[in-house]
Each structure stands twice: as structure tokens, then as C-alpha cells.
User: Which sequence fits this backbone?
């Protein structure tokens, strides 16, 4: 039974669509729906109990009793022919109106796209040795797409053929498939290995700003694949957060580092290109402190980054974290601080010191509302360097690590010169995918 559904009379039509999508994805496309107000503070459902009982006990109709597997309609290989303006009108479609916000386009992110002609798609496919008919499964098998359809979206996003191995790795992760909850899923990517330099990705100064064709088009193809291949609908099963780095952010790691590069850290060879992928909420937060309490004598006095300061900022996270260093800062830390001699020693230091009171952890939102987290920690092996049963049932004032394990902390080196550092919260460690297998 789908409780949080509403009828048009409640003036919340988006939730009807959301409920239908959720039911279809759960294998129950004909599930009955009972309407009640979408009020977060509603505590009494008794006025709707008779409707619930009726919907649960009324005999099934022939349509409701039908079995089988839902099969979405297969779009034609050639969608349309015409001028550029006619093509844009087709892909934009009749803008889908929302009661709670502005309208959105049908098959684009709202901006103009490159026409995916047969010639352009064929040229894009030269970027990989894989067959155009090969099928990729993503989002835990909920969706599939041929490499040709992925190439269509790459063309639309403005990608070049040499980007295709990265595009296919992004598709393999699930791209930016929508999330039917109360926040956006971040879907952030970092490219590690030679291909970043090969295709001209920005791994240096201003790496998170617009202007670099590779970074910008690869970020955009995340959105387009989510819309066209992952059935993502803005405001329906994708609730976007504000900020420029919350959906599909991608950049390349800078190989100029005193520590392991990410591919090596995750067990790959140094010359293998790898996509590091966070499927959860990731928002990089500028790390800055403009208050200096003593007179400045050297340039280092102005540099505000330190392991202690990073510990304090990461206490705002939960489960996992990303710390991004410019190369200068990474080399400075590696030479000055014993805890930062290697990537592993820094991760261990942060895990040991980013802590919280036990009673705060036990009463936190995730532990109270999501019992699966408690079960996850109960199932871990005792005595290991991760949250495990040893951290449960401690005195209220005991200090407990906030992050799941040292491996849930990812250290990235990227950006230009100067002392600069950024951090962000994540829900645990990222996943990694080989890019080279798609060459």
C-alpha cells in the first residue's frame, strides 16, 4: 500500500507520478493508492483508515491481478529528421509543468544540445572498441542501454570520441539515476590515471569552474544519461540540491603528489586509468579561515590549513569524507607533519581523531531512523579499524569515530599552486571502475 500518495484534489500531482514510478520499480505497477495530505507533521491517519481497509480488502480487478514484467516502450532508433530548430523542439518537448516549480524539458537538461546525427554518433563510437549493440546494465540492473544509445547522449552533451571510455565508465556506475528521497544523490567522479591528461581534462588551476571542454561535457553527459537512460525526472525522482557541485561533478586527479595516486591506492596499476565514483551526497565545501590571532612573520603564518583544523571540519561529516589538496599543500603536509607522511597515515590519523560522544552517535538521525546502520555495525568483526560492536553500548561520554573506517576517507590531490584545501561529506567509501577496459 502506498501511503504518501495524493490525488489531484490535494493539488500535489507530482507525488502521484512519484508513487507510480516507485511502484513500477518495485515490480507492482498496478498497486492501489490511497490519498492523504503530504504533511510532514501529520500524526493522525484515522480519517483515511477506512480507505486503507477498503483498498486492502477489495477484490482485485483483472488488470490488478495480471502478472508479467513491466517493459518500457522502446524508442525508435531514428527519432526524427528536420532542421536544428526542429530537433531542439523535439528534444525539449512540451515542457513538463510542476505545481511547485518551473517547467523542465523532456530529453535535455534545459540547454541546447548537439544534434545526434548518424554521422556524429558513428564518429563518437570510434572512441571505443566495443560493439554499438553491447548492453550495459546499471543502477543495480534496473536499467540497461546499448553503447550506441550512450554514444547518442555523449554527442548531445558535446563530448569528443576520445572521451568515450570515460563516458562508458560513467554509464557503468549508473550515471545520475534519480533518487526518490528528500535529497539529491551527489554522483561525483574523479578520474585517476593517464587518460585525464590524454583527453585534456582540467586537473590543475580552477578545476571546478567552467571552460574546460572535457570536464564540462563529461559532467553534462551524466545529466543527460540520467534523464534519457535512467528515467530521471526533475522534481519527481531526482530532488536536486542547490550548488554547482552536487550532481555529476567530475575532474581529474593531479599526478603531482607526495602520496599514492588514487588508482594505486585502490589497488590498480599506476598506468591504469580509473574512475572513482561516489553515489551519495557529496558537496565540496571551501576550507578557509581568515582569522589569524597573531602577527604574521612568514608566509606560512598565513597558511591556515593543518591536520588539527581538518579534523575539526570533518567532524561535520558522517560515515565518510573526501579531503582535496592542491599539490603544494600536499607536499607541505607530507614534509611537515608525521601524520601525513603517506596517504594511509593521514587517513588513520583522521579516523582516530574525527570523533563524537557516544550518546550523540546513538541518538543521531541515521542510527534512530535507519536500523540497518545499527545492524551493519553489529555485523562487523570486533577489534578491527572500523566501526564495529566494540563501539556499541559505550558510556555516554566515550569518544567514537564519526567515520566508518579509514578507508571511508578519500584523499585527493588536484588543483593548482598555493595553499588550498577543500573537504566534503560522503556516505562511506566510493566505488572504482576501470576506464581502460572501455578503450
Assistant:
Amino acid at each position: 500500500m502506498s501511503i504518501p500518495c495524493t490525488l489531484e484534489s490535494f493539488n500535489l500531482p507530482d507525488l502521484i507520478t512519484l508513487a507510480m514510478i516507485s511502484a513500477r520499480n518495485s515490480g507492482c505497477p498496478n498497486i492501489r493508492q490511497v490519498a492523504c495530505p503530504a504533511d510532514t507533521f501529520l500524526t493522525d491517519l484515522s480519517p483515511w483508515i477506512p480507505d486503507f481497509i477498503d483498498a486492502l480488502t477489495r477484490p482485485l480487478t483483472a488488470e490488478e491481478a495480471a502478472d508479467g514484467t513491466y517493459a518500457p516502450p522502446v524508442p525508435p532508433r531514428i527519432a526524427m529528421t528536420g532542421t536544428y530548430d526542429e530537433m531542439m523542439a523535439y528534444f525539449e518537448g512540451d515542457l513538463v509543468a510542476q505545481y511547485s516549480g518551473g517547467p523542465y524539458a523532456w530529453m535535455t537538461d534545459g540547454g541546447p544540445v548537439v544534434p545526434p546525427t548518424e554521422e556524429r554518433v558513428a564518429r563518437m563510437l570510434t572512441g571505443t572498441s566495443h560493439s554499438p549493440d553491447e548492453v550495459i546494465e546499471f543502477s543495480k540492473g534496473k536499467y540497461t542501454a546499448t553503447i550506441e544509445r550512450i554514444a547518442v547522449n555523449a554527442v548531445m552533451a558535446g563530448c569528443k570520441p576520445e572521451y568515450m571510455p570515460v563516458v562508458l565508465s560513467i554509464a557503468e556506475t549508473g550515471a545520475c539515476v534519480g533518487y526518490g528521497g528528500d535529497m539529491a544523490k551527489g554522483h561525483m567522479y574523479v578520474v585517476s590515471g593517464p587518460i585525464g591528461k590524454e583527453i585534456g581534462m582540467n586537473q590543475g588551476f580552477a578545476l571546478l569552474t567552467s571552460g574546460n571542454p572535457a570536464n564540462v561535457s563529461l559532467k553534462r553527459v551524466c545529466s543527460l544519461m540520467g534523464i534519457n537512460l535512467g528515467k530521471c525526472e526533475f522534481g519527481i525522482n531526482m530532488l536536486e540540491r542547490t550548488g554547482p557541485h552536487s550532481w555529476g561533478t567530475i575532474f581529474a586527479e593531479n599526478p603531482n603528489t607526495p602520496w599514492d595516486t588514487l588508482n594505486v591506492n585502490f589497488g590498480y596499476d599506476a598506468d591504469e586509468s580509473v574512475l572513482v565514483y561516489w553515489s551519495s551526497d557529496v558537496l565540496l565545501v571551501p576550507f578557509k579561515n581568515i582569522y589569524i590571532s597573531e602577527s604574521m612573520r612568514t608566509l606560512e603564518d598565513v597558511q591556515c590549513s593543518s591536520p588539527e583544523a581538518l579534523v575539526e571540519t570533518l567532524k561535520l561529516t558522517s560515515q565518510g569524507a573526501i579531503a582535496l589538496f592542491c599539490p603544494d599543500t600536499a607536499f607541505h603536509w607530507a614534509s611537515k607533519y608525521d601524520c601525513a607522511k603517506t596517504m594511509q597515515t593521514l587517513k588513520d590519523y583522521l579516523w582516530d581523531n574525527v570523533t563524537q560522544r557516544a550518546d550523540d552517535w546513538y541518538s543521531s538521525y541515521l542510527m534512530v531512523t535507519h536500523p540497518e546502520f545499527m545492524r551493519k555495525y553489529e555485523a562487523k568483526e570486533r577489534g578491527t579499524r572500523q566501526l564495529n560492536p566494540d563501539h556499541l553500548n559505550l558510556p555516554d561520554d566515550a569518544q567514537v569515530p564519526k567515520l566508518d573506517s579509514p578507508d571511508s576517507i578519500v584523499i585527493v590531490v588536484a588543483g593548482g599552486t598555493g595553499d588550498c584545501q577543500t573537504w566534503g561529506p560522503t556516505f562511506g567509501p566510493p566505488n572504482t571502475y576501470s576506464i581502460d577496459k572501455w578503450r
